[in-house]
Design a protein that fits this description.
Helices cover 21% and strands 16% of the residues. It is α/β, with parallel strands linked by helices and 171 residues long.
Amino acid sequence: MQQSVESKVPVNMRDNWRTPRFVFEHLQKALETEFLCDLAADIHNSHCDRYFSAEKSALSHDWPIGTSFCNPPFTRKVDFVRRAVEQQARGAFSVFVLPVDLVQKYTQEHIAKHATAVLVPACRISYIKPETGETATSAPFESYVVVFGGARPGNVDHVPFIWVPGLGYEP
Ligand SMILES: C[S@@+](CC[C@H](N)C(=O)[O-])C[C@H]1O[C@@H](n2cnc3c(N)ncnc32)[C@H](O)[C@@H]1O
């Protein structure tokens, strides 16, 4: 029987951890792109001028054509990934920071079949606590970066794993 491991971190905190700015900037450089929109944000934590939020949901609006950034709310990550696959088909590409859930159904159904690349940071990303703005000493899980769209859109049999040495460390 499959057992789920319940996190002790309250949902509102798990859903709101922020991405360090240097990770966002490093990804723009590594992928040679400028993110058009932060797909999961609010007015205080958006990395871009343009963003979707709990009120103007990325799950019910079309995403801009081009490449956007997303660190989804933890409890909605599967919905966001499913939506990324739908939006990829219309040319709205996205770059996700996600927990590494390799044996989960959504990874196999959506990421393995539709992602165009997976970037692997050199270490765990330390997220920023939403309530204090402090960087957490260590995340209790590993993260990776999943790219939907770009050079090789559509179904792929093999998703390249690209190890990115500088990504987990602040320069
Ligand atoms: C993990 S935080 C990411 C914060 C910030 N954009 C970053 O990357 O550092 C997820 C954010 O998504 C917002 N959010 C929740 N539901 C959403 C939805 N349906 N559409 C867009 N954003 C949503 C939350 O309010 C929260 O600010």
